Amino acid sequence: MQVFVRDNNVDQALRVLKKKMQREGVFREMRRRRFYEKPSEQAARKKSDAVRRMRKLARKQAIRDGLIAAPPKKKKEDLKRPGAAAGAA
User: Among 33, 12, 56, 7, which Cα is nearest to 20's?
Assistant: First the structure.
């Protein structure tokens, strides 16, 4: 993995690097490898991950086919300031 530092802006390069590592799943892998995982636990985890992926795929396909309603979209204001809506009252 490679990140270029432009104009001696190390902070921005670090942010880009963290985002790339997050996308690649490096942090998840490090957390998973922190402790030994028995082969039976590993098989169970892989199976549950596969089930989760298949359910997600089936849900997205059902939304595309119109069999179930899509979840409501979030407003841009809610994405920018998640705590502002709750604390404004």
Answer: 12
CA-based Rg of the chain, rounded to a whole angstrom?
20
Calpha distance 71→89 (Å, rounded): 25
Per-residue pLDDT of the chain (89 residues), as tens digits, is 888 899 999 999 999 999 999 999 999 999 999 999 999 999 999 999 999 999 999 999 999 999 999 888 888 776 666 665 555 54
State how far the Cα of 88 lies from the Cα of 74, in Å rounded to an integer.
18
Residue 54: partners with Cβ closer than 8 Å, 6 or more residues away: none
The tokens describing 6, both together, are 């432009």
